[in-house]
C-alpha cells in the first residue's frame, strides 16, 4: 500500500478505519494483477557492453586429439563448433602457448616454439595452427592465446610444472611471447587478437603452470611485455589475470589497475569461474571483461538439464557481470581421459564417435546470433519465475536478438513488446530436449507486441530486424525503468495538482512491463504526471500509455502546448476506469511547437488510483 493511504488511516477513528480497510481491500489489492501472459519490454536506446564473442579452447592437446580423428568425423565436429548455418557459430578460439620439450599426455604438455634458449621450432605447434585456420575458414576472426608455462629453461625449477618465472628471464619471456605473435601472423596468417602471459597464476597444478602474484604480473607486463609490443608495433591486446577462481580477479588485477602508470598496459580483464561466482568487477577502469574458461569435473550430462544450467551461467555473466566474452574450456573431450567427458562435444576415440552435448547448442543460442560487435540492450530480465531474457543489437545493421531461457516444466506464454522501435517479425530458434537451434515459423507483430511461446525447458533465440521507417519513442524513461526508488523523478514529474504521485519500484505484478510503473492517488482535485517532449513542428504524432486504475475514475491522456493543461490549448482523450491494463491513445499535431508536454491524470475521487506504464510518443 502507498504511504499516503496509511497516513489517512492513522487520522481516522476506529470505525472509519474498519470501513477504509474494507474499501482498501476492494480498491487497492487489484493493483497487483495476474496477467494472462507475461510481458517483457525491449528497448534499443540504453546500451551496455559490446560483445567480443563466445568460444572455447583446443589447448592441452585438445587440438591434437581433434586433428587425429578421421577426416569426415573432424569435419562434422568443426562444423558443429563454428558453422553459423548448421552449428553453434562459436566466434572465439583460445589456444595454448606451449612450453614443453615434447608431447606428454600424462600432464597435457605440448611442444614449445623455443625449447632451448635461441632455438626456435615453428613446426612445433601444428595442431593448434591447424585448428585456428579451420575455425578461420568457418568465419572465426578472434583468436586468443594463453601461456600455461614459460619453457622450462626460464623457470626457477627448470620444469614447466610449478615453480615460477626466473627474475632474470623476464626479458627473455617477453621476447618469446612477442615472437609468438609476430610469427603466427607472418608464417601462418593468424592475427592474434589477445594474449594472456599466464594461465591461472594463482594455481600450483600438476600440469604446466607457473605461479605469479599481481605485483609480479604488473612488473612483467609494464617493464617487459608492453614495451616489446610497442617496439614491434604489435596491436594484440594484453589480457589478464586469468586466475582460476573469479573471486580472485580483483586481488590480481588491482595492482596494475590502481596505478595510473600501469593501468593502460592491460586491455582486457579476464578470469575463470570454477568457483561459480559471476560477481561484477568493481574496478575494471572501463576495460572489457572476459570469462575465459570454465567447465565441470562431474560425470557428463549430455541432456537439456546441463544445457539449461550452462545457458544460465552465460546469462548471468552477460547481464550481471556485463562480460564481453564467455568461453567454455575444451571444445572436445581428451583422448587421455575417458572419465572426463564434460566438454562441448564428447568423443569416444576408440570408435571415433561423438556426442554433441546440449550445452553446445544452448551456448549456440548466444554465439550463433550474438556476433562480435553487437551491443547488449535493455529487456525485462526476469519477467516471471523461471524465465530469463537478455537482448542485443547490431549497431552496424538493423538486427535485434533476444535470448530467452525457460527453466519451467511447462510452456510459457510471453508478450515481447518493443518500446522504442518497430519490427515486423521475429524468427525463433529453439534448443530443447528434442531440438537443436531449430528454426521456427516467424512470429508477426501486432502493433508493438509479439505473442510468443517458450517451450518447456528450452532456450529460444529470437532474431529480427528493425523495420525501415520504424519510429523512435520520444518519451524518456517510457517504462519508468530508470527510476531508482519509489519517488517519482526526472524526466517524469507531477505536473499539476496536490494528489500523491510515485513509483511502484520493483513490485512484482504491478507494472505492465519491466520492474516499475508510475502512479497517482488523488482524493479530490485534478492531479497529473508527465514530461516535456521535443517534437518537430507541423508533424502528426501518436501518444499512448498503458493504464489501469481503481475502476471508479474518469482519466485523461493528452498533450498541452503552453504552460499547463488548464491554460490550454491541449489535445486529449478521456477514458473510463479499468482495473486491468488498457492501452490509451491519442493523436495530435505539433503545430508550430518545438516541444509539448504529455500528461496523464484524473480529477480526484475518494479511495482511487491510476497507474501508467510503457508510454510512447511516435511520429504517425
Automatic annotation (TrEMBL):
Taxonomy, superkingdom: Bacteria
InterPro entries recorded: 6GAL-like, 6GAL/EXGAL, GH, GH30_C, Glyco_hydro_b
Stretches for region Disordered: 474-493
Pfam families the UniProt entry points to: Glyco_hydr_30_2 (PF14587), Glyco_hydro_30C (PF17189)
Compositional bias (Polar residues): 474-492
GO molecular function per UniProt: hydrolase activity, hydrolyzing O-glycosyl compounds
All residue ranges annotated as the Glycosyl hydrolase family 30 beta sandwich domain in the record: 375-462
Residues annotated as domain Endo-beta-1,6-galactanase-like: 41-254
Database matches in PANTHER family: ENDO-BETA-1,6-GALACTANASE, ENDO-BETA-1,6-GALACTANASE-LIKE DOMAIN-CONTAINING PROTEIN
Designated name of the protein: Xylan degradation protein
Organism field: Tengunoibacter tsumagoiensis
Amino acid at each position: 500500500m502507498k504511504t499516503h493511504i496509511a497516513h489517512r488511516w492513522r487520522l481516522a477513528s476506529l470505525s472509519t478505519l474498519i470501513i477504509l480497510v474494507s474499501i482498501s481491500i476492494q480498491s487497492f489489492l487489484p493493483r497487483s494483477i495476474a496477467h494472462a501472459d507475461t510481458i517483457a519490454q525491449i528497448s534499443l536506446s540504453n546500451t551496455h557492453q559490446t560483445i567480443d564473442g563466445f568460444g572455447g579452447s583446443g589447448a592441452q592437446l585438445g587440438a591434437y586429439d581433434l586433428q587425429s580423428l578421421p577426416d569426415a568425423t573432424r569435419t562434422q565436429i568443426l562444423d558443429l563448433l563454428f558453422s553459423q548455418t548448421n552449428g553453434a557459430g562459436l566466434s572465439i578460439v583460445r589456444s595454448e602457448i606451449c612450453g614443453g620439450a615434447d608431447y606428454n599426455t600424462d600432464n597435457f604438455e605440448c611442444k614449445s616454439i623455443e625449447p632451448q634458449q635461441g632455438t626456435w621450432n615453428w613446426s612445433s605447434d601444428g595442431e593448434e595452427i591447424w585448428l585456428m585456420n579451420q575455425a578461420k575458414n568457418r568465419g572465426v576472426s578472434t583468436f586468443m592465446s594463453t601461456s600455461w608455462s614459460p619453457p622450462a629453461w626460464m623457470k626457477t625449477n627448470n620444469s614447466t610444472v610449478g615453480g615460477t618465472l626466473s627474475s632474470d628471464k623476464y626479458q627473455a619471456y617477453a621476447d618469446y611471447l612477442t615472437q609468438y605473435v609476430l610469427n603466427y601472423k607472418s608464417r601462418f596468417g593468424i592475427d592474434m587478437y589477445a594474449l594472456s602471459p599466464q594461465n591461472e597464476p594463482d594455481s600450483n597444478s600438476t600440469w604446466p603452470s607457473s605461479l605469479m602474484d599481481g605485483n609480479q604480473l604488473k612488473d612483467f607486463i609494464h617493464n617487459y611485455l608492453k614495451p616489446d609490443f610497442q617496439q614491434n608495433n604489435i596491436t594484440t591486446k594484453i589480457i589478464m589475470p586469468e586466475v582460476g577462481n573469479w573471486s580472485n580477479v580483483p586481488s590480481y588485477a588491482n595492482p596494475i589497475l590502481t596505478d595510473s602508470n600501469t593501468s593502460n598496459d592491460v586491455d582486457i580483464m579476464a578470469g575463470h569461474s570454477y568457483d561459480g561466482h559471476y560477481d561484477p568487477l568493481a574496478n575494471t577502469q572501463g576495460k572489457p571483461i572476459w570469462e575465459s574458461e570454465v567447465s565441470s569435473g562431474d560425470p557428463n550430462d549430455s541432456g537439456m538439464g546441463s544445457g539449461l544450467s550452462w545457458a544460465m551461467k552465460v546469462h548471468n555473466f552477460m547481464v550481471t557481470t556485463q562480460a564481453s566474452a564467455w568461453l567454455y574450456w575444451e571444445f572436445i573431450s581428451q583422448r587421455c581421459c575417458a572419465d572426463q567427458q564434460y566438454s562441448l562435444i564428447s568423443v569416444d576415440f576408440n570408435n571415433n564417435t561423438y556426442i554433441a552435448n546440449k550445452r553446445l547448442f544452448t551456448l549456440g543460442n548466444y554465439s550463433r546470433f550474438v556476433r562480435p560487435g553487437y551491443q547488449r540492450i535493455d529487456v525485462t530480465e526476469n519477467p516471471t519465475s523461471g524465465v530469463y531474457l537478455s537482448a542485443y543489437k547490431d549497431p552496424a545493421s538493423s538486427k535485434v536478438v533476444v535470448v530467452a531461457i525457460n527453466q519451467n516444466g511447462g510452456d510459457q506464454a510471453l508478450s515481447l513488446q518493443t518500446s522504442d522501435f518497430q519490427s515486423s517479425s521475429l524468427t525463433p530458434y529453439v534448443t530443447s530436449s528434442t531440438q537443436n537451434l531449430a528454426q521456427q515459423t516467424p512470429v508477426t507483430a501486432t502493433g508493438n507486441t509479439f505473442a510468443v511461446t517458450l517451450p518447456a525447458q528450452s532456450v529460444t533465440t529470437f532474431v529480427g530486424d528493425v523495420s525501415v521507417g520504424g519510429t523512435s519513442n520520444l518519451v524518456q524513461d517510457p517504462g519508468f525503468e530508470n527510476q531508482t526508488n519509489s519517488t517519482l523523478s526526472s524526466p517524469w514529474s507531477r505536473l499539476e495538482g496536490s494528489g500523491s504521485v510515485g513509483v511502484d519500484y520493483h513490485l512484482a505484478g504491478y507494472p505492465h512491463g519491466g520492474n516499475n510503473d508510475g502512479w497517482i492517488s488523488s482524493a479530490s482535485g485534478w492531479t497529473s504526471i508527465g514530461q516535456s517532449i521535443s517534437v518537430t513542428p507541423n508533424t502528426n504524432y501518436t501518444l499512448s500509455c498503458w493504464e489501469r486504475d481503481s475502476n471508479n475514475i474518469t482519466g485523461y491522456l493528452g498533450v498541452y502546448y503552453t504552460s499547463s493543461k488548464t491554460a490550454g490549448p491541449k489535445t486529449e482523450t478521456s477514458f473510463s476506469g479499468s482495473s486491468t491494463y488498457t492501452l490509451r491513445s491519442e493523436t495530435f499535431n505539433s503545430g508550430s511547437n518545438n516541444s509539448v508536454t504529455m500528461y496523464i491524470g484524473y480529477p480526484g475521487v475518494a479511495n482511487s488510483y491510476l497507474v501508467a506504464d510503457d508510454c510512447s510518443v511516435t511520429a504517425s
